[in-house]
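Hey, I was hoping to borrow your eyes for a little while. For a while now I've been wondering how a particular protein folds. The fold is given in discrete form, as structure tokens running alongside the sequence. Could you read through the record and tell me how the tokens relate to the sequence? Take your time with it, there's no hurry, and the full record follows here:
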Amino acid sequence: MVRSAYSSGHPSVGVGAGNTPAVIDETANVNLAVSSILLSKTFDNGVICSTEQSVVVVDSMYDDIKAEFIRRGAYFLNEEEKNRVRAKMFVDGRLNADMVGQSAYGLGRLFGVNVDKKYKVGVFWCL
């Protein structure tokens, strides 16, 4: 089905059963969208691949969405922190297994990023 979508001539986003992107546009209920994404990501700290791995936000919603993520306990990494994470995300060309099931605080400790225990998730915000 993904192959068909990609060859349809229309913009498409194809994924498997998990690791899906969430797309938030002007019609979204911001509170519900952000709450649902955070609940999905935190109930088991992402152990299984059934949660959103990325969020695509239309430009006009950017400020509202980011503010809601912050209000609900998301920690946005700065550029230096992103580089620390990138440096330890892979070990010998493979995803670092020590990341699996870690809280935002645990991931911060693993990556050398000071993340307070109050934060629910860590976010790489890319434009």
Notes: The chain has a mean pLDDT of 88.
